[in-house]
Write a structure and sequence with these properties.
This protein is mainly α. Helices cover about 90% and strands about 0% of the residues. It has one helix at about 5-29. The longest helix has 26 residues, at about 5-29.
Amino acid sequence: MDNAAVIVFDINSVSVLFVRSVVVQKRVL
């Protein structure tokens, strides 16, 4: 894999985790 592809994959993973955490917080509230 190219470094660029790995960086993009990491960004996508972080964004997905961030969205999940926000959704969980909204459900709790």
